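Progress report, Aim 2. The chain analyzed during this reporting quarter is listed below.
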Amino acid sequence: MQSENRPLADLMRPATIDEIVGQRQLLGENGLVRRMVDNKKLSNLILWGPPGCGKTTIARALAKSVDMDFVAMSAVFSGTADIKKAMDAARMNREIGRGTLLFIDEIHRFNKTQQDTLLPYLEDGTVVFMGATTENPSFNLNNALLSRCHIGVLQSLSSEDLLTLMSRAEEFVGKKLPLDDNARIHLAQMSDGDARFLLNTVEYLINANFKKKLSSDSLDTAIQKRAPLSDKTGDEHYNLISAVHKSLRASDTDAALYWTARMMTSGQDPMYLFRRLSRFAMEDIGLADPNAMQMALAAWQLYERMGSPEGDLALTELVIYLGTAPKSTANYRAQTSAYRTARETGSLMPPKNILNAPTRMMRDMGYGAGYIYEPDTASGFSGQNCFPESMQRQKFYHPIERGFEREIKKRLEYWDSLREKLNKAKN
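Predicted structure tokens for the chain:
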């Protein structure tokens, strides 16, 4: 076994579905993949999941379960010519009664034309197609291709699954890992659900000839710790920022701190986070706490001036402030409502009383007639109409009974009551 110049992860690759660790939602009773194996009938399949969760292994095991030729290619290195070459070979296979499973890794990297090239071969059954992707298929694959495939969603392996793999690796090589019990658990956790990372690390540890068992701390020193999964621009990136945003909205400040830390320790650009947090201050807090926006801008500016690590504390302080602030989307709803009404009502003129009259002709036309200068009134409020004369008064902004908006609500109600009294007095 050791004479083979292949990594341990490849040497230990399961040959059958039953040997695969994890992914019970697909491989267990009534799971999508299990039904294919039991029925000896494969369907076109997109396997979507994080790195090292078993996508390629499942495809290989499926091909073997029905005795089909397994043809693998990577969308990173292959193009339309490679697809056509594989299809020609598959046609020859079909003429002698043998099926072909075409597996394309990183299928999301194929452009539209390359994806479309596959369609006729899927239609006529030249191949059974299986693609693997770490990106959300609905974002990156053509609807035409998606409509011809089942989607199998894979999850990161659990720590228990990885500990099982660790024991299998020891049995496979006939040697125990130089780890104490805590370090074994630590290795499973730091592998972050990635079986390939785990087995590569196991292979290194077994071949490194350590003189004594490693503790968790010495394990960190011995190997480079795996950064938490975050692809900065892909699906996982948006999952994490969504978790930050939803945690803040739920006022779950500790969870928001965790997801923010996940993004930062994965190499996320802090400027992206500050932009999203500033947006949150406007949209989800608004006037319930007017200081939230100022806090966001100040923290952003401080980070730009000081950088890391000092600026990291400003980011943490901002997350805590936004998480604990009262929430309101009243200003966002007011904007949406006002914009909708503006589009519906067209080009109505403002009432003449609130128009400037810089020329005599305009004054003769009634521009500015009846305008009341509010600061000169006893109450500082005139109640004059500022909507178009042909339009009913509208209510766009509805403040809530939380935070500073409670005070704004009182002011608006006061002015509404004054307006009603003044209008009654006029009539």
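Strands lie at 45-48, 69-74, 100-105, 128-133, 150-153. The longest helix spans residues 405-426. These observations will guide the mutagenesis work planned for the next reporting period.
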